[in-house]
Design brief:
It contains eight helices and 15 strands. It is an alpha/beta fold. It folds into two domains: 153 residues, Medium-chain alcohol dehydrogenases, catalytic domain (Quinone Oxidoreductase, Chain A, domain 1, Alpha-Beta Complex), CATH 3.90.180; 151 residues, NAD(P)-binding Rossmann-like Domain (Rossmann fold), CATH 3.40.50.720. Strands 3, 4, 5, 6, 7, 14 and 15 form a seven-stranded mixed sheet that branches. Helix 8 links the parallel strand 14 and strand 15. Helix 2 packs across helix 3 and helix 2 packs across helix 7. NADP nicotinamide-adenine-dinucleotide phosphate binds next to helix 2, helix 3 and helix 6.
Length: 335
C-alpha cells in the first residue's frame, strides 16, 4: 500500500528550536472524494513567522497545536482531481500541511503558469516574501531619491528585494548581513552602495556611521535587537522605520526592553509595523509588477534549496542561524 509522510508538531521549543519539535509519521495515502483534488508537494516554504506559531498564546496567527501538522506555503502538482477547472498535472501554490500528499477542495489555490518563472518562485520573490518587500518598501518605508535606505537581514528573502526596490527608487542603499559572502553578494551582485557585516564588526555603530555619512532616512527592519540598536542613533529627522520583523528576538525566552530610547519627539521619527496580509487587496497588482521586473532582469533573487522532505526541520532552524541565502525552500519532488 502506498504511504504518505507528514510532520506532526510534537513539542514546543524553549529558545532556539532544534528540529526535534517535529516528528515524521507515515500514514495511508489519502484519496480524494467528490470536489477534491490530491496534490503532491513539490516545494515547501520555511519562514521566520513559523517560530511564532510554535509558541503558545495569541499572536496574529494562531499557534500550532501539539499533535497536529504544521502548515507551510507550498507549491504542488495536481495528481488526481474531481475539481472542475483543476486538471491533473496543474501546478498550484497555496498553504497546506507539511506532508508529501494533501487533499484540497481547491480553495486558496493559485494556478501557476508552467511557462513562467520557476514554480518555487511563488514561495519567494513572486509570493509572500516578495509582497512583503514590495509593500514594506513602497507603502511603509516610502523611499525618496537621494535617501539613505538601510535594510537588515539584507541577503535574505525579503531584505534582498527591499534593498533592490529602494535602489530603483533612487536611494543610497546600505545592507546589513551576517557573512562575508553575503556582503560581497550585496555589493557586487545587487549593487548596494555599502554593506556591513554585523557579526564581523567589533564596532557595529561605527561601521554603520561610516557607511551612512549623512545619516539614515529610511530603515527597513527585519531583525531588531542589537542590529536595530546600532541603526537607531543614525536616524535623521523625519526618518521612517518600517518594522517588518524582529528575527533576532524570536528565540528569546523573555521579552527584553529595547535598549535604545528612540528619539521620536526630537527627530520626529515614524516607526510603523505592518503585516503583508494588510495589503491583500493589492496582491494581484503587486505580483504582476514583481513578475515583470523578474522576467526583465530588473529584480534579482536568490534561493537556497535543500532537497528532501525530511529536511524541513533543519531548513527551518537554519533561518535563525543565517544558513540561507535569499529564500529558503525545501524541494520535496521535482514536478
Ligand atoms: P530571511 O531574511 O530569508 O532569513 C532570515 C535571516 O535573518 C537569516 O538568513 C539571517 O541572516 C538573519 N538572522 C537570523 N537571526 C539573526 C539575528 N539574531 N540577528 C541578525 N540577523 C539574523 O527571512 P525572510 O523570510 O526574508 O524574513 C525576514 C524578516 O521579515 C523576518 O523578521 C520575518 O519575520 C519578517 N517578515 C515579516 C512579514 C510581515 O508581514 N511583516 C512577512 C514576511 C517576513 P544573516 O546571515 O544576515 O544573519
Ligand atoms: C501573513 C502575515 C505575515 C503571513 C505571514 C506573515 C503567511 C509573516 C510574518 C513574519 O514572518 O514575521 O499573512 O502569511
Amino acid at each position: 500500500m502506498a504511504l504518505n509522510r507528514r510532520y506532526v508538531f510534537a513539542q514546543r521549543p524553549h529558545g532556539m528550536p532544534t528540529g526535534e519539535e517535529f516528528e515524521l509519521v507515515e500514514e495511508a495515502m489519502p484519496s480524494p472524494g467528490r470536489n477534491q483534488a490530491l496534490i503532491r508537494s513539490c516545494y515547501l516554504s520555511v519562514d521566520p513567522y513559523m517560530r511564532g506559531r510554535m509558541r503558545e498564546g495569541p499572536s496574529y496567527a494562531p499557534p500550532w497545536q501539539v499533535g497536529e501538522s504544521p502548515t507551510a506555503g507550498a507549491v504542488g502538482r495536481v495528481e488526481a482531481s474531481d475539481i472542475v477547472g483543476l486538471p491533473v498535472g496543474s501546478l498550484v501554490a497555496g498553504t497546506w500541511d507539511w506532508a508529501e500528499y494533501v487533499l484540497s477542495d481547491g480553495h486558496g489555490l493559485r494556478r501557476l503558469d508552467p511557462s513562467g518563472a520557476p514554480p518555487q518562485a511563488a514561495l519567494g520573490v513572486l509570493g509572500m516574501p516578495g509582497l512583503t518587500a514590495y509593500f514594506g518598501t513602497f507603502d511603509v518605508a516610502r523611499p525618496r531619491a537621494g535617501d539613505t535606505f538601510v535594510v537588515s537581514a539584507a541577503a535574505g528573502a525579503v531584505g534582498s528585494l527591499a534593498g533592490q526596490l529602494a535602489k530603483q527608487a533612487g536611494c543610497r542603499v546600505v545592507g546589513i548581513a551576517g557573512t562575508k559572502e553575503k556582503i560581497d553578494f550585496l555589493r557586487e551582485e545587487l549593487a548596494f552602495d555599502a554593506a556591513v557585516d554585523y557579526r564581523a564588526e567589533g564596532d557595529l555603530k561605527g561601521a554603520l556611521r561610516d557607511a551612512c555619512p549623512t545619516g539614515v532616512d529610511a530603515y527597513f527592519d527585519n531583525v531588531g535587537g542589537a542590529v536595530t540598536a546600532a541603526v537607531a542613533p543614525l536616524m535623521n529627522t523625519h526618518g521612517r522605520v518600517a518594522v517588518c520583523g524582529q528575527i533576532a528576538t524570536y528565540n528569546q525566552t523573555r521579552r527584553e526592553p529595547p535598549d535604545v530610547a528612540w528619539d521620536l519627539v526630537g527627530r520626529r521619527l515614524r516607526i510603523e509595523g505592518f503585516l503583508v496580509s494588510d495589503f491583500q487587496p493589492r496582491f494581484a497588482e503587486a505580483l504582476a509588477r514583481l513578475e515583470h521586473w523578474v522576467l526583465s532582469g530588473r529584480l534579482r533573487y536568490r534561493e537556497t534549496i535543500v532537497e528532501g522532505f525530511e529536511r524541513m526541520p533543519e531548513a527551518l532552524v537554519g533561518l535563525f542561524k543565517g544558513s540561507n541565502f535569499g529564500k529558503q525552500v525545501v524541494k520535496v519532488y521535482a514536478p
